[in-house]
Amino acid sequence: METVLITGANRGIGLELARQYLKKSSRVFATSRTSESAPSLSELKQSYPDTLQVLPLEVTDDRSVQTLVEALRGETIDVLINNAGVSGGKQQDIRSMDYAWWAHTLAVNAIAPFRVTVAVLDNLRRSRNPRIITLSSQLGSMLRATTTGFYAYRSSKAAVNKVMQGLAVDLRSENMIVCPVHPGWVQTEMGGANADLSAQESASGLIQLIDRLKLSDSGRFFKWNGEEHPW
Predict the structure, then answer these.
(1) What is the pLDDT of residues 50-106, one digit of tens each?
(2) Statement: the pTM of the whole predicted model exceeds 0.85
(3) d(Cα 1, Cα 8) in Å, to the nearest integer?
(4) CATH, domain range 3-223
(5) Are 130 and 78 in contact (CB under 8 A)?
(6) What is the torsional sign of CA 1, 132, 157, 32?
């Protein structure tokens, strides 16, 4: 039985990942900023009382992360999924930029995955096959320059790709697999109703990819369907 830690698991892809991992008999630690924001996780907990634990986590707050560390002390984590993220706000183009939101977006999408990963390294070291997955985006690819705007979101995903690439190098000697992954354009609150994929399809593909990752894959950028994504 593998143990999976998922940040931002109260809705969207994170919630669906939790649901599908539980169905395949994994243990899941699912985090949400507050219990009030996680009614769907509370419902899921009723179906999986022994294998789902819901924990509070504000990924940008050091004290909250330390509280998570204490809650996980002595636990093994086989898979960490840095899923928590924000879209960058409504004002993020050359006509109107909310600079405070840009800074917040970088804090959530680029800095927090590093903060959480480093915080739970001891838990990952207990695993025989530790994998660190961060949900990135194709909009962070340097080879994709087909649309404008979304400066805050794009820059945060480009930044986290580089962060994960660096962690892959630093943690290779400990046999830890580190990969950023594009989950697809998904029908969530962030992706919108016109997106290509359902959360169920994205989560299923992500889990299949995570299951087959090898150390030689560490530091590569993948799509939800297992294809490699250009940087």
Answers:
(1) 999 999 999 999 999 999 999 999 999 999 999 999 999 889 989 999 999 999 999
(2) yes
(3) 22
(4) 3.40.50.720
(5) yes
(6) positive
